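Dear Dr. K.,

Following up on our conversation at the group meeting, I've run the structure prediction for Biopolymer transporter ExbD from Minwuia thermotolerans. I'm pasting the input sequence below exactly as I used it, so you can double-check it against your construct before we proceed with anything downstream. Let me know if the numbering doesn't match what you have in your notebook.
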Amino acid sequence: MSRLPARNRARPRNDDDRIMPLINVVFLLLIFFMLAGRLTAADPFEIAPPESASGGDPAAEEMLILVAADGRLALDGAMVSEAELAERLGREPRRVRLKADADAEAVRVVQVMEVLRDAGVGNLYLLTVPAGR
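The predicted structure tokens came back this morning:
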């Protein structure tokens, strides 16, 4: 009556049994990142856009400008001053989306729109949310 050494008893029977714990861990990590992750970059400050009765599908444009309720500006996810905004737009005039907070002063939003016009922006899209949401 011979017995196998203790180290041989705990070994998996085949290759599938060896990689099954690895597959389980990878699967759990995949589920974790799917639930916890975000696929888009977060805005540097919170924006509650105004409501609009008309609608349209916003296309994926090149530049996104945010105007906070307190007047701060962000360009493509980075905080900028008005002078920096004009400088960056002056280099590459193109289509722009403007997302302003509903509580932002209209004077400030118009001021930003004038900076965009002076920089040569031809197509400006003012982002809103549909009324009733």
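Two things stood out to me. The mean pLDDT is 80. The longest helix spans residues 15-36.

Best regards,
J.T.
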